[in-house]
Design a protein that fits this description.
It is a single chain. A hairpin with a 2-residue loop joins β4 and β5. Helix content is 41%, strand content 24%. The strands form three sheets. A five-stranded parallel sheet has the order 2-1-3-6-7, sandwiched between helices. A two-stranded antiparallel ribbon has the order 4-5. It has a two-stranded antiparallel ribbon with strand order 8-9. α3 crosses α4. The chain has a single domain, classed as Flavodoxin domain (Rossmann fold, 3-Layer(aba) Sandwich), CATH 3.40.50.360. It has 176 residues and is of the alpha/beta class. It is globular, with a radius of gyration of 16 Å. 37% of the residues are buried. The structure holds flavin mononucleotide. The site of flavin mononucleotide has 16 residues, from α1 and β4. Keywords: Oxidoreductase. This is NADPH-dependent FMN reductase.
Amino acid sequence: MKKIIAFAGTNSKTSINKQLVTYSASLLNEVDVTILDLNDFELPLYGVDFEKEHGIPQNAHIFLDLIKSSDGLMLSLAEHNGAYSTAFKNLFDWMSRIEGKTFFDKPMLLLATSPGGRGGESVLNIAKDRFPRHNANIVEIYSLPFFGNNFSNGKIVDDELNLQLKNAVKQFELSL
Ligand SMILES: Cc1cc2nc3c(=O)[nH]c(=O)nc-3n(C[C@H](O)[C@H](O)[C@H](O)COP(=O)(O)O)c2cc1C
């Protein structure tokens, strides 16, 4: 059976992106899913001086190994001031110091949601431009706007938005 990792690009313990990625992963059939949480991979703030003095922290190696040993990734990015959350950017920076091909050509379903109407569009645009330079194979991109209106009890309540996600998940599954 194919195995994927699914995680949100945030360290919020009540993350709406974690809720979205968890629901998205539940739509897969016959795939072994591991949901990860950035809070379980605490890392110091990246800095060149820190790296020179202490090297690269174990948690960056562990997370990168989890990507490497997976068959695919589902990632839902939180948007902070139009960009990655600090927690995600920090992990990404650390991992990129170990391996520039950070995503190892693994199929990726890239998601984002936010409380507002743009649904994380800015951070998705940044990731869409940047991730392929780190060997991401982005299969589908999906954005859920107005999380508070469109998501309830662990799932998307708007039929059209739900169908769009199901189609994206299906394409992702076919790519594994
Ligand atoms: C510092 C900060 C900046 C934010 N900037 C944006 C933003 O640029 N666009 C947006 O849609 N939401 C923004 N938000 C709201 C987040 O989308 C919201 O907090 C969301 O819950 C974050 O996702 P998460 O719950 O998965 O961490 C911001 C929130 C914080 C705390």
